[in-house]
Amino acid sequence: MPKLSSIIDDVKRRLHGRTPAEVVSLTLKTVRHTARGISPAAARARRADQAFDRRWGTDTSGTVNLSALSVARDRALLGFGYQASNGVALDEAVTRAGIDPARYSFIDYGSGKGRAVMIAAARGFQRAIGVEFAPELHDIALANGRRFTSAGGSSTRCEFILGDAGSYEPPTGPIFAYIYNSFGTVILREVLSRLETRAAQGDPVVIVYVNPLNRSAFEDGQRWTVAADRSDWVLYTPAC
Ligand SMILES: C[S@@+](CC[C@H](N)C(=O)[O-])C[C@H]1O[C@@H](n2cnc3c(N)ncnc32)[C@H](O)[C@@H]1O
């Protein structure tokens, strides 16, 4: 829980040079945000977020803003910060897709500290790959992957690639792509263009889009069909 003195310092810093109306609005927002952070529901969510790490001795929980990471500013402006998946959507989407993970390469576009990649490795995907552009998160993911494997989490090796999702060339063969609200439409379209090429070459491609805030990137070009539509994830397959 944040200390009262640090909350006051934060409020002072944010209010400096503001008009009275902005002061009132920002103060209310800060109070609401702080209240949400100390609510029982927030405490439950924090405990659930930390459960994976308690079990495997990894470091995947918490949130990280892109402004705190060493990423190119023009690309950071097109992306979103770090927060780990809980694995529920991944499992539901694999079941709904009806695929045999042992035939598919799992690719997490914007893999952060690697939790989704580790979960995919444990589910028996042929390959479990994560692409992350922030070196700080990539290094943590590498260490997590080693800990997870040596603690018996999976026999599939976790592969972490440092780079921009938009320029990552996926491997040949069946692909199960996973995107947890990592970036907006510009980078989504770059990723989709490469996956469309794979699909056109005859490789089976399935994409699960979790927290799907930018569905237009998939649905405007009519190249992807909605195979399943849940409130918090959408499953896409190639339109033809
Ligand atoms: C919401 S987190 C998801 C983390 C992970 N996929 C998971 O499910 O646990 C989004 C991640 O995408 C990364 N990201 C954002 N833009 C990116 C880009 N252009 N290329 C690679 N990674 C990116 C962020 O650094 C962050 O780690």
Structure commentary:
This protein is α/β, with parallel strands linked by helices. The protein folds into two domains: 34 residues; 176 residues, Vaccinia Virus protein VP39 (Rossmann fold). Helix content is 44%, strand content 18%. The protein has a seven-stranded mixed β-sheet, with helices on both faces. The longest helix is centred in the N-terminal third of the chain and has 18 residues. The N and C termini lie far apart (51 Å). The mean pLDDT is 90. It binds S-adenosylmethionine. The site of S-adenosylmethionine has 27 residues, from strand 2, helix 6 and strand 4.
Features:
7-stranded mixed beta sheet, binds S-adenosylmethionine, Rossmann fold, 2 domains, alpha/beta
At a glance:
By secondary structure, this protein is α/β, with parallel strands linked by helices. It has helices at 4-15, 20-37, 40-56, 73-76, 88-97, 115-122, 135-150, 185-200, 216-219; strands at 63-64, 82-83, 105-109, 127-132, 158-162, 175-180, 205-210, 224-229, 233-238.
State the total count of DSSP E strands: 9
Distance between the termini: 51 Å
CATH topology of the largest domain: Rossmann fold
Q: Helix/strand/pairing class, anyone? A: alpha/beta
CATH class of the largest domain: Alpha Beta
Shape: globular
